[in-house]
From TrEMBL:
Domain of life: Bacteria
Domain called HTH hxlR-type: residue spans: 10-112
Species per Swiss-Prot/TrEMBL record: Ravibacter arvi
Stored InterPro entries: HTH_HxlR, WH-like_DNA-bd_sf, WH_DNA-bd_sf
Pfam families referenced in this protein's UniProt entry, alphabetically: HxlR
Keywords carried by this UniProt record: DNA-binding, Transcription, Transcription regulation
Name recorded for this polypeptide: Helix-turn-helix domain-containing protein
PROSITE patterns reported for this sequence: HTH_HXLR
PANTHER family attached to this UniProt entry: TRANSCRIPTIONAL REGULATOR, MARR FAMILY
């Protein structure tokens, strides 16, 4: 079925894409979401796995938490540890993450050949 593109529908789609990129755009947010798909992680684990500095990681996690995509749990341990996990709401991005991973693999094959 062909989609009819109007000026209004294109403007609305553009706004929706900008809103999405405001939430998950940048170098690290999608990497963090993909890493957390494998289960909850402690702060230092995330920093190592994503190869991101603690300062930037803290900022990115705070923004993901503010947007309801990541939960933060302070564990009752000595020393205090903090675990991060995906929220149920983050599952609404599953199709997007899968599509990006698929396109990225396809693009890599095209460029390497």
């Amino acid at each position: 079925m062909d989609t009819i593109h109007t000026k209004a529908s294109c403007r609305q789609a553009s706004l929706a894409i900008r809103d999405t990129l405001d939430i998950v755009g940048g170098k690290w947010k999608l990497v963090l979401l993909m890493t957390l798909r494998n289960g909850k992680r402690r702060f230092r684990e995330l920093s190592r796995e994503a190869e991101i500095s603690p300062r930037i990681l803290s900022k990115e996690l705070q923004e993901l938490e503010q947007n309801g995509l990541v939960s933060r749990t302070v564990c009752d341990t000595r020393p205090v540890t903090v675990e991060y996990a995906l929220t149920d709401y983050s599952e609404t991005l599953d199709e997007v993450l899968d599509a990006l991973a698929k396109w990225g693999a396809q693009h890599r094959r095209k460029i390497i050949l």
